[in-house]
Amino acid sequence: MRESTTGPGNSVSTANAALRGDVDLGQPRHDWKLAEAQALHELPLFELLDLARAVHRRTFRDGEVQLCTLLSVKTGGCPEDCAYCPQSSHHETAVEAEKMLDEKAVLEAAQRAKAAGSTRFCMGAAWREVKDGPVFDRVINMVKGVKELGLEACCTLGMLNADQARRLKEAGLDAYNHNLDTSRDAYRSIVTTRTYDERLATLRNVREAGITVCSGGIIGMGESVADRCHMLIELARMNPHPESVPINALVRVAGTPLAELPPLDPIEFIRMVALARLMMPQSMVRLSAGRTEMTRETQLLAMYAGANSIFFGDRLLTTDNPGKDEDQEMIRAAGLSCQKPAAASV
Ligand code: SAM
Ligand code: DTB
Ligand code: SF4
After folding, report:
1. Residue 116 is inside which H or E element, if any?
2. Beta bridge partner(s), residue 71
3. How many C-beta neighbours within 10 Å does residue 41 have?
4. DSSP category for residue 274
5. Annotated active-site positions, please?
């Protein structure tokens, strides 16, 4: 980074000091400023990679990747109007509303995921929020069953109140995924049926129940770099940081309002992963949606920049993911290792 143009404690000086080794970026911070985040984001790519990699290696085993499997337990027909989502009933997409899966089907899928090498199993539902009653009771049983298989259990079910979070914790749930998706400002043009503060309230309920937090977002929705930085600043304000930060590249699904957006530049994706690694140095950073449009080399560079988890299996919720064979081949070619079940802790 060139000469500092702003005063101490902010912007360019943080990036400069980090490059000189004068500040310790490995310690979690909760007070990131926009100018600091942007200055890191705009570093020459190799300088950004060097910093992110050094921070990554302080906490994580080099080249180790966690495999997670995702299953849609309730697909489509969602009342929310999230502009990116093929499951919203506001958009005409190829996704049809389906009935919720039963416990047996879910546990068979979890068993297959375990046999294939996944250590974490995440169950997703196309709901705005969880409603108490027999359907939620079924989710509770699914969580108990997944835990009995020795897998980490994660759910993403929409908004949760404190009591629902407590019941999920009692059932053994390890993690809850609820993404901020983008910055507070950009959120308004992406979702109108719920607020950013409602998202944050659910995350607080999850944290207070003692469940680990999985929260990240999507890039490639037309947002600015400042929006991406604002989203990471908001996530990093949480104390502790979310244990898991999924970075999704928008999957441009036909029929959604974002279908015609241009593809994301892979270097932008790498920069975002590196910045997430720097701003939340001890969190798992997950390469989530959008990998089918990335080369193997882009994905590996994202891992070099600090990503250490992928969704493993042919499908995400309703869209394609690289197949298991393809991922195993990437893991083999790069000499990566897969996290063992006993080490799976977040
Ligand atoms: N309904 C729940 C909710 O919204 O929290 C859980 C499921 S929702 C599909 C989980 C996340 O998937 C969203 O928050 C969003 O980040 C991600 N997602 C959905 N559609 C996507 C797309 N087309 N591209 C990338 N990520 C997407
Ligand atoms: C996350 O951040 N990405 C995953 C998981 N959390 C639940 C979901 C991606 C969904 C992509 C679109 C689809 O397959 O429907
Ligand atoms: Fe529904 Fe979640 Fe999709 Fe939004 S992202 S439409 S809440 S399934």
Report:
1. helix 103-116
2. 123
3. 21
4. H
5. 78, 82, 85, 122, 154, 214, 286
Give per-residue burial for 92-124: e unless 16+ CB within 10 Å, then b: ebebeeeebbeeeebbebbeebbeebbbbbbbb
What is the CA(243)–ligand 3 centre distance, in A? 22
CA angle (206, 210, 213) in 5-degree steps: 50
Respond yes or no on whether the N-terminal peptide bond of residue 28 is cis (omega within 30° of 0): no
58-343 has CATH 3.20.20.70 classification: yes
Ligand 1 proximal residues by C-beta, below 6 Å: 84-85, 87, 124, 126-127, 156, 158, 178-179, 181, 218, 248, 250-251, 253, 289, 317
CA of 315 to the centre of ligand 2 (A): 10
pTM of the model: 0.94
**200 closest CA partner among 235, 244, 175:** 235
> Residues 218-238: pLDDT tens digits?
999 999 999 999 999 999 999
Can you state the angle between helices 266-279 and 45-59, rounded to 10 degrees?
A: 40
DSSP letters spanning 127-178: -SB--SSHHHHHHHHHHHHHHHTT-EEEEE-SB--HHHHHHHHHHT--EEE-
CB 139 within 8 A of CB 179: no
Q: Which ligand is nearest to the CA of 319?
A: 2
> Which H or E run includes 121?
strand 120-125
Q: In Å, what is the CA distance from 225 to each residue of 6, 167, 222, 273, 310?
A: 19, 38, 10, 13, 24
Q: Which residues contact 261 (CB under 8 A, 6 or more apart)?
A: 220, 221, 222, 250, 252
The mean predicted confidence, pLDDT, of the chain is 93
Q: Where are the domains positioned within the chain?
A: 58-343
The H or E element that residue 203 is part of is helix 196-208
With vertex at residue 59, the alpha carbon angle to CA 325 and CA 215, rounded to the nearest 5 degrees, is 65
- Give residue-wise pLDDT tens across range 50-90: 999 999 999 999 999 999 999 999 999 999 999 999 999 99
List, in order, residues 6 or more apart from 42 with CB less than 8 Å away: 225
